[in-house]
Structures are given as structure tokens and as C-alpha cells.
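Write out the 3D structure for:
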Amino acid sequence: VLVEITGWQGLFWIDAGVAVLCMVLTFITVTESRDPNRPRSIDYAGTVLVALTLAPFILAVSKGGAWGWFSLATLACFAVAVASGFAFVAVERRVAVPMLDLALLRNRVLVGATIAILIGAGTINGLMYLLSLYFQDPSTLGFSPLQAGLATLPATVGLVVIAPLVPKLAARFGGRQVIGVGFAVTTAGFAIVGFVQPSWRYLAFLLPLIAIAVGMGMSNGPASSAATASVSAEQVGAASGVSNMARYVGAAVATALAATIYATVTANRTAAGKTASEALSAGLALASWVMAAFSFAGVLMALVMARHRAAKGTVHDSAAAAAAHTHTLPTSATLVVARVVRDE
């Protein structure tokens, strides 16, 4: 939408202005907090190794179709990512203040909730990216950037509408059950898009778009609450950091994977003599089926995820956790449960 209104240069200036405004507001309004008992060292090695793990992996997923999945460049990127991942684990075991406390990974609830967050954020970001491209292509719907942006608003509406209902559902049926049902609804939405045809108009995408958003809202809220409620009060920040990292990694990897599938299938179908609309529909369909498979894996994960004590906080806390699809919030509800777990 902003590209349509301001152009690319205008968008960059808007981003820069927002960044400066955030820095100023942070400086004025956020008070300094320190832990006098925590060492002041920074895990520089861990930071570099995380970058060396994720960057080559995402590059290989993005370029694998063009380079060839068994080409030297692709295999080299995967090798660097794997080697850096093992080196990261080795470093985190030895540094005084690790960027990631590996002991957290022994917590089944935290790991399960983090995987749920990764799947939810990854699949919906991947699909939204592809739908934006699909809606704007002249061979399909031919929307302008403004129209394509407005066309995705029903997903936001679905997420906002379901958020206040998630705490009541989780309290009545249990967090795992709500997460599983949420992923099932999301899977159904992706599956519907998987049957896309060149003749589809926008209204055909409306129901699956809302279903995907509603399903994500149902899975994200209990998963976010579980991520921080399953650890002690001292570990809430670290647990939130782990799940937030998973959110961004999932979005980056799934978007790269979906874009690669979309571009590869479209190119192959075009080379086989299909029309542009048929090729684009085939690319979107296969990418949607892959996202559906990931979402169904979320259903299976919810079935085996360990139980955790339900959070006993305010409705506003729970609704905030359900609606915050970009962050894991350590609310008062999660802190109450964290104190109970610590005392036990």
C-alpha cells in the first residue's frame, strides 16, 4: 500500500523515519534496568555462528531451484549452515553468558510451543507473500499494490476477531486442543488454496484466507502463553527470546521456500507450454500444499506436546498473547504460572 502511495524511495524514507522515532521514544520513555549479578560479557561468537547458520541455509533454499539442489553452491551453503549449527552448540556450552541457554531445550513444553510458533508464523507469512504476487500479476487478478494490500485485510480481521475468544476456548478445552484445532483449520485453508484454478476470482480466496488467519490466532495464543508459562520467572525473558527467534526464522525460511516453489513450478509449467495464468496457479497450488503439510505437522505436534499448568491471569493478558503474532509476551498470567512452577 505504501509503495503505491509513495513509491519505493518514499517507503524507505518512511521506514527510516519510523526507526528514528522509535529510537527517540525509547530514549525518552524506557528506563534503564540492570542485573548486577549478571556478567557483562556478550556472546559475540554465538551471534556470528547464528548468522552463519541461518544466512547460508536461507540462501540455499532461495536459490536452490536456480542453482540446482545438488549443485556445488547449494551443497556448500547447506554444509556451512550445518557446520555452523554444530559450532554454535559447542560454543554455547562453554561461554559464561550464552546467547541461548541450551538447558531450555530440555523443556518439552517450550520446545513444542516454539515449534508451533515457528510453523504458524512461517506458513502464514509464506502464503501472504505469494498471494501478494499472485493478486498483482496481470495474468491473474491484476490488482494494484494498494488493492492487493487491501485484499489481505480479511486475514487481519479474522485474527483480531478470534483473539478474545481464544482464552475462553483454552480454559474450557485445554491449550493443546486449541492449538491442534487451530492448525487443523489452517491446514484446511491452505488445502483450499491448493485447488486454485486460473479462473478463480478474489472471492474464492476470501474464505480460505480468513480460515488461515483464524487458525493461526487459535494456535498462536496458547503456544505463546505456554512458551513463557513453562519456565521459571528468571527464564521468562530467555524463553520469550527463543520463541521470538523461531517466529522470525520460520517466517524467513517458509517465505524463501514458498517463493522458490512458486517460481520453479511457474517456470517449468511455462516452459511446458502452459499459459501464464495456468503456470502461476500451479505454482501457488503446490506452495499451498506444502504449507498445508507443515500445518498438519503442527496438528500432530500438538497431540504429543507435554501438558502445562494453565495460566491464571487476566482476560486482557490472554487476548494480548493470542493477538500478538509477532512477539511472545511475558504477561502477568504467564508470570503467575512461572512462580508456581518455580515454587514447586
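Confidence is low (pLDDT under 50) at residues 308-320, 333-344.
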